[in-house]
Amino acid sequence: MIVLFENKEECTGCTACKHVCKKNAITMQTDEEGFQYPHVDEKLCVNCMMCVKVCPIKVDKQEDKLFQQQVYAAKNKNHDVLMSSTSGGMFTAISDSVLAHNGYIYGVKFDENLNVIHNRAETAQQRDEQKGSKYVQSDLSDTFIQVKNDLEKGKQVLFTGTPCQNAGLINFLQNQKTNCANLVQCDFVCHHTPSPLIWKDHIHLIESKTGRKVVKYECRSKVKGWHAHTERYYLDDGTDSYKTKLSQNFTDLFDSALVSRPACQICKFSGKARFSDITIADYWGIEKCNPEFDNNTGVSLLIINSERGMKLFEVIRHKIDCIESTFEDAFRVNHSKPSKAHPMRKEFWEDYKNKGYVFVLKKYVDYSIPGRIYWNFKKIVRPVLKFCGIRK
User: Fold this and answer.
1) What CATH code is carried by the domain that includes residue 31?
2) Are the C-beta atoms of residues 329 and 91 closer than 8 Å to each other?
3) Which has the closest alpha carbon to 298: 74, 52, 142, 62?
4) pTM of the prediction?
5) How many degrees, rounded to 5, is the angle at CA 328 between CA 322 and CA 334?
6) Which residues contact 219 (CB under 8 A, 6 or more apart)?
7) Can you tell me the distance from the alpha carbon of 111 to that of 285, in angstroms, rounded to the nearest whole number?
8) Cβ(324)–Cβ(96) under 8 Å?
9) How far apart are CA 145 and CA 353, in angstroms?
10) Strand, coil or helix: what is 159?
11) What are phi and psi of 125, to 5 degrees?
């Protein structure tokens, strides 16, 4: 029987292997950490090796590109779009141009239960549900098949996802000999993908503490400005919160890398080389290299990786303000190499398995009573010190 991976660091969960299998011998199954991995049914498998041939970890089909990548700092000229976006509103500008040609947008949204899923948008209203960062690995379901079918019908398609999802998609489509002339691939600078299981525990804890249902979530609200990484949730009684340790716990877990997918620790898709046509991200550090371009409402890092990406950039250029930049100014340390594995990751998941979510919050991100008191104290004191000129 085919062994798709020896250890979990060798699988990104991109689903390419599942969809290429003509015998339907591969299913995606969720492990104890909440991540999906392919499982091969040996009774159905005929050892054709197609699954191995499309795996972006095992086979790197990225061609050497002669295109000279272009780097920009950019923001949408439409103020409403800018303020409703996580950074500079580039996803909206790019997807608008595809929708204008009756194309389809594949991106990530929260479903009615706040699960993070890939889906297809055919209208601006549907596309708007995909706006905003979601710091959780998305469920791709049958997205690769849908993209293939749409391309075969001659539709324009924009696919937005992590670099590894983009790599899996193009490997799958090339294997299927799909004409990709109408496909635009967009990825983003991805530090790592957190566990959907931990995400659901985060939502359940908020609901148990408030006694209400969470109906909307902003992983990166601009209520305190773009530079502040502020989580904000909305409840079914019309109230919202972004001011408590309870609301900010998931950011702490994300920053720790305790809950990231194992493959992220050895990611081969970070850095300058890209499968996508366009890369988008927050332009962290713009306040240092081009402070006049930053007013704390959001600035995107925009990297053009191909001729197709450049053509699209020229189409949207009148909708955005942008200035040329460089990789040296734009790339942070964790842009160019994988995020380091937390040294206590194994212990974290053992504690989670045996003692539960609240226990690991208290132990690893200081959700204890003293920790919460100190967190609130810092929130009050820091603005005072900044106002007095004692702290920058």
Assistant:
1) 3.30.70.20
2) no
3) 74
4) 0.92
5) 100
6) 86, 132, 133, 134, 135, 231, 250, 251
7) 33
8) no
9) 35
10) strand
11) -65, -45
What residues make up the domain containing 39? 8-54
Q: If DSSP codes are grouped into helix, strand and coil, which group holds residue 232?
A: strand
Q: For residue 367, is it within any domain?
A: yes
Q: Is residue 12 part of a domain?
A: yes
Round the CA-based radius of gyration of the chain to a whole number and report it: 21
Q: Is 170 found in the same domain as 139?
A: yes
For residues 274 and 366, membership in a common domain is answered with no
For residues 84 and 226, the answer to whether their CB atoms sit within 8 Å is no
Strand, helix or coil for residue 278: strand
Q: Enter the tokens of residue 180.
A: 């990709």
**Tokens for 71?**
């780097």
Q: Residue 353 corresponds to which amino acid?
A: K
CB atoms within 10 A of CB 333: 7
74 SS3 class: strand
pLDDT in tens, the chain (392 residues): 678 899 999 999 999 999 999 999 999 999 999 999 999 999 999 999 999 999 999 876 555 567 899 999 999 999 999 999 999 999 999 999 999 999 999 999 999 999 999 999 999 999 999 999 999 999 999 999 999 999 999 999 999 999 999 999 999 999 999 999 999 999 999 989 999 999 999 999 999 999 999 999 999 999 999 999 999 999 999 999 998 999 999 999 999 999 999 999 999 998 888 889 999 999 999 999 999 999 999 999 999 999 999 999 999 999 999 999 999 999 876 677 888 889 999 999 999 999 999 999 999 998 655 555 444 545 544 554 454 555 55
Give, in degrees to the nearest 5, the angle at Cα 199 between 301 and 30: 105
Same-domain check for residues 125 and 17: no
Instruction: Specify the 3-state DSSP secondary structure of 329.
Output: helix
Task: Give me the number of domains the chain comprises.
Answer: 3
